[in-house]
Design a protein that fits this description.
Number of domains: 1
CATH architecture: Orthogonal Bundle
Largest sheet: none
Helix content: over 70%
Strand content: under 5%
Shape: elongated
Length: 191
Amino acid sequence: MDSRQRLTQTMLKLLRAQGLRATGLNQLITESGAPRGSIYHHFPGGKEQLAVEALHAAGELTAAKIRGAATGAKGSVGPLRAFAETYAAEMRESDFQQACPIGNAVTDAAAGSPAIRDACSDVFAAWERTIAQLIEQAGFDKKESRDLAEFILAAVEGALILCRARRSIEPLMRVTRRLEAMLAAAKRRQT
């Protein structure tokens, strides 16, 4: 892994654990093992540019996890359950230190940085499209799929915040059960 990749991966890890404001350049250099000059060599825009790249990388990783959860999962609720269980395991394994980097960044720095806000908005929109496609494949119409995807994303992001605050996966699992029931009822109404 080259220094650019190490810096991006380290920024992603730190965004998940502590957000953008708490992440300093010295910490990035120390934890990545990258040479001091490599930040501005690879990221002339500094910490903000590095954060934007890390946010987009996180977005792609999570979108892949969402699609992966759908592989082999049955019906309209199977992928949701599989994704929630994967995220719950990650939270437990990190002792609730690793949260959603996009959620952390948007609450931490979006008001002061249009670039961070735009990156977070882009990632959330991509996740919504991915979720909507899966819902549509399960037999929902296009508009309802988009609406449900936005609601699911908002509910899961909120649940992740509660999980971290309470140091428990129960908020995520309760939200998942409610979302499953909601999707099942919506599916029954369509038939």
